[in-house]
Write a structure and sequence with these properties.
Blueprint (H helix, E strand, L loop, with lengths): L16 H17 L3 E2 L5 E3 H8 L4 H5 L3 E3 L5 E4 L4 H10 L2 H4 L3 E10 L11 E10 L4 H17 L6 E6 L3 H18 L5 H9 L1 H4 L5 H6 L12 H17 L4 E2 L11 E8 L8 E7 L3 H4 L7 E7 H7 L10 E6 L2 H16 L4 E2 L6 H11 L3 E6 H6 L1 E6 L5 E5 L3 H10 L1
Parallel strand pairs: 1-5, 7-8, 12-13, 12-14
Antiparallel strand pairs: 2-4, 3-4, 5-6, 6-11, 7-9, 9-10, 10-11, 14-15, 15-16
Helix pairs in contact: 1-6, 2-4, 6-11
The structure holds one RNA strand of 76 nucleotides.
Length: 416
RNA sequence: GUGAGUGUAGCUCAGAUGGUAGAGCACAGGAUUGUGGCUCCUGUGGUCGUGGGUUCGAUCCCCAUCACUCACCCCA
């Protein structure tokens, strides 16, 4: 039987690599503009980190984690998301003691045991940021703005930002109670899933796509009406700041996130063309998470982009094909000289390639397919005169130049 | 975990009421004793997902199984 990759775990092949590099480079560039630094945490953590961080009755923790016991008997898990892991690192190293404001990003693989589908894989990659120790509404607005800036810098079209406030614990408790009460009367209209979760996770019912559920929740209480004074002011100031920054957004009081730790501001970035999983990014504020994980009482906000979903939205990247192919035909001296030409080109940072052990014709074919604009041709005639032939592969013109100065000639032709 | 669809060459796909398979692209070689991309010719490459059943005979029909894809749940 053929050996294949594990379900939901994909190879990223060279053809796609330019897109990945583009995404990563763009993200690093944007984050630097906002003063963020990179932090890399391990892929494996004690299971407890996510158990305490994400919430033990969320789907992510309940049924999607890759967990096992290592050889010492420690319960460990492949990280299903970055935030809990990054915060564990921040707490462990006391970063907040040294500098009470931390602006961090990380990029890497995450693991969730789910059925794969378009835009969802068991190993997937996220670009993640955490911003700790600031809690004014302007901090939230600027953070959402940074997410928006990344999306637009990547050239994503048709991106929409949806914003909501989940309030603090007090607001949310009151809202949940009211919502449960409302749903109790609508019970018969709900789909089987919603009938089940109206008690466990009533906020989710608001988000259901089943038509009868959509009808049932019309006129349902809105979180907006349950925000306490402080939360309402905070929310409005966030929105006002987004307006001032020119970030287009839509309020979505039914926007619910699946991780338990969110408080107040939450948001999602969606795009078309992703199929059913249309969120490219999501995030929000988490005012108690650091403390929950055993750290100081410091607030935070963060978001994550799904890299595979970003990649799907990108057009083909134009490759940088500056470089030169070397084609050699003749005796051993010619071959050896060709090798030194390659070395000379590379020593001045010009990418250079050749294929060895192939016919002249085959070498030329490879040169043509290489995408390089130039090739250097070396044969016994050239060697005899101490010359090389430089051919322009785009217009087929060629010149003979002295071997001593050929590198400079190649460089000037490439830089034209 | 649930549902639907699809599994034939490296890729995209044809195919016959059941008689062991084709095209395009890609790859390799040639037409051109030292000049690629275009054109033409030639070639390599498939246990027709796997196992079982029906049959003289199955890639095709039946069953099972696995894989992939999409959707639900949930999320990036």
């Amino acid at each position: 039987m053929e050996i294949k990759a594990i379900r939901g775990m994909n190879d990223i092949l060279p053809d796609d690599m330019p897109k990945w590099h583009f995404v990563e480079q763009t993200a690093r560039k944007i984050f630097r503009l906002y003063g963020f630094s990179e932090l890399r945490s391990p892929i494996l953590e004690r299971t407890e980190v996510f158990f305490r961080g994400i919430g033990d009755d969320t789907d992510v923790v309940e049924k999607q984690m890759y967990t096992f016991t290592d050889k010492s008997g420690t319960a460990v898990a492949l990280r299903p998301e970055a935030t809990a892991s990054v915060l564990r690192s921040v707490i462990e190293h006391g970063l907040l003691n040294r500098e009470p404001i931390q602006k961090l990003y990380s990029i890497g693989p995450m693991f969730r045991y789910e059925r794969p589908q378009k835009g969802r894989y068991r190993q997937f990659h996220q670009i993640n940021i955490e911003r700790l120790g600031e809690d004014g509404p302007l901090c939230d607005a600027e953070t959402l703005h940074m997410a928006y800036a990344l999306a637009t810098s990547l050239g994503l079209a048709g991106v929409r930002m949806e914003v909501n406030s989940l309030g603090c614990d007090d607001c949310r408790q009151q809202f949940k109670t009211a919502l449960k009460e409302f749903l109790r009367e609508k019970e018969e209209k709900l789909c089987t899933d919603c009938a089940r979760r109206k008690n466990t996770n009533p906020l989710r019912v608001l988000d259901c796509k089943v038509v009868s559920c959509k009808q049932a929740v019309e006129g349902a209480p809105s979180i907006e009406d349950f925000l306490c004074e402080a939360c309402r002011v905070h929310y409005h100031e966030v929105l006002a700041a987004l307006d001032a920054l020119g970030v287009p957004y839509e309020k979505n009081p039914r926007l619910v996130r699946g991780l338990d730790y969110y408080t107040r501001t939450t948001f999602e970035l969606t795009a078309e063309g992703l199929g059913s999983q249309n969120a490219v990014a999501g995030g929000g504020r988490y005012d108690h998470l650091i403390q929950t994980l055993g750290g100081p009482d410091v607030t935070g906000i963060g978001f994550a982009f799904g890299m595979e979903r970003l990649i799907m939205l990108l057009p083909e990247q134009v490759q940088d094909n500056r470089g030169c192919f070397v084609v050699a035909q003749g005796n051993a001296t010619v071959q050896l000289t060709a090798l030194t030409l390659l070395k000379a080109l590379r020593s001045v940072q010009i990418p250079a390639e050749a294929v060895f052990g192939k016919s002249f014709k085959a070498q030329m074919r490879k040169a043509g397919k290489s995408g390089y604009p130039l090739c250097v041709i070396l044969g016994e005639e050239e060697i005899a005169q101490s010359m090389v032939t430089i051919k322009n592969l785009q217009d087929s013109s060629q010149v003979q130049v002295d071997m001593a100065g050929f590198v400079e000639k190649v460089r000037s032709l490439l830089d034209k």
